[in-house]
Amino acid sequence: MMTGSDGKGAQRGALDGLIVLDLSRILAGPTATQLLADLGATVIKIENPLTGGDDTRAWGPPFVPTKDGIRDMSAYYLAANRNKLSVAADIATPEGAALVRQIADHADVVIENFKPGGLVKYGLDHATLCAARPDLVYCSISGYGQTGPNRDLPGYDLMAQGFGGIMSLTGPVDGAPHKVGVGIADVMCGMYACVGILAALRHRDATGEGQHIDLALVDAQMAWMINEGTNYLLSGEVPQRRGNAHPNICPYDVFACADGHILLAVGNDGQFRRFADALGADDLTLDPRYATNPDRLANRVALTARIAALLAPLSKSDVLARLAEATVPAGPIQTVAEALTSDQAVARGAVVNVANDDVEGGAVRLLGNPLKLSRTPVTMRLAPPRMGQHSAGILDRLRAMIAARSAR
After folding, report:
1. Which residues, other chains included, contact 149 with Cβ-Cβ below 8 Å and sequence gap of 6+?
2. pLDDT, tens digit, 9 for 90 and up, residues 161-208
3. Which residue blocks in 175-225 are alpha helix, DSSP H?
4. Catalytic: which of 125, 186, 253, 358?
5. In what helix (H) or strand (E) does residue 351 lie, and over which residues does it extend?
6. Which residues pair with 351 in a beta bridge?
């Protein structure tokens, strides 16, 4: 459901009534709080008016064309800040810190991404706030975590990808390591944060006891190396870059056709036989070097060269049609524009329009939330806010929310 900037008419979400104090900025923390907000939580985003708010507001172009001409709504900022209330407060001042502590008094969850120990001097650290509110769930996100020799080093997505190992696996076989094309370490850390917060809330609801969640970008990045990480743990062999090839499956790669590239993902022996039949390549099914997946992995170079030669003179549409008929996983490589305007994207709500009276055209286009909940669907209640848009009367608003929650 898409609604106006006041959120009127929205359905109640699964987290309706939950109050989240968001002291995070940039991407990992905002990803977590946006997901909580999409599920119905009220998220109060604290932004420092002296610095222009969240750093990503200025990470453009592109910017949303606002009616007042101020360029404070970059596409990057829009990606992780919908459904939130923005409150301007400088926590370095006694007044600002006091306001944030008052908001914390009403919150169920606090999430922050300051350097470890950075909030102690403001009385906003987990020890201080949790002592006053034993039922508070407090999530700290940092580059390397609250402990360990690197705890005081700054944390950025690029540094996490480098330190955590994923860059050593990404990129062409010959050449420099590559980062993933988006801030995946930040995004996945935000997802882990959301899961941890929900688990802690479950515990709080059962026992009345809050807790501190210590989450690091690097820890999260190491955890999602999945099969390549466990490949190393099992074999002792350090995984190497393979371009688009798969370490455990073959053929599973990008291949060139006469008019462009396609993806081929042959996951088992039956699919491989159907692939060979669809292309009239009887030699592949008869060759014992390719009989099983381990055989194909052992002879990857020769097999890849043979498939490349098979596909090179054929058109993409021809190959994809044949493989679809044979139920062999294969597909196109779409641009971002092609992906987001595809019939599938339209059918699934991959792009949403959210009303915003501050911008030219009266709405912003955002990436949708992929969760499809049958009883408590996600809602797009609020466009990403202007800095400090909801400062006035925030405490009264929270008290009214809590009173309404208690009356249910």
Report:
1. none
2. 999 999 999 999 998 999 999 999 999 999 999 999 999 999 999 999
3. 184-207, 217-223
4. 186
5. strand 351-355
6. 367
Question: Any idea what DSSP says for residue 182?
Answer: S
pLDDT of residue 86: 98
Count CB neighbours of 123 within 10 A: 17
Residue 2's pLDDT is: 36
Cα torsion 115, 121, 127, 131: sign: negative
- Let me know if 157 is a catalytic residue: no
Q: Domains of the chain, with CATH numbers? A: 19-224+340-407 (3.40.50.10540), 267-328 (3.30.1540.10)
Per-residue pLDDT at 1: 29
Q: Report pLDDT for 408.
A: 79
* 220 secondary structure, DSSP code: H
Round to whole Å and give the CA distance between 18 and 16.
Answer: 6
66 to 34, 62, 363: CA distances (angstroms): 22, 12, 10
Low-confidence ranges of the chain (pLDDT < 70): 1-10
CA distances to 137, 150, 162, 215, 274 from 169, in Å: 36, 23, 10, 23, 30
* Tokens of residue 287, six digits: 């060759």
- pLDDT of the residue at 97: 97
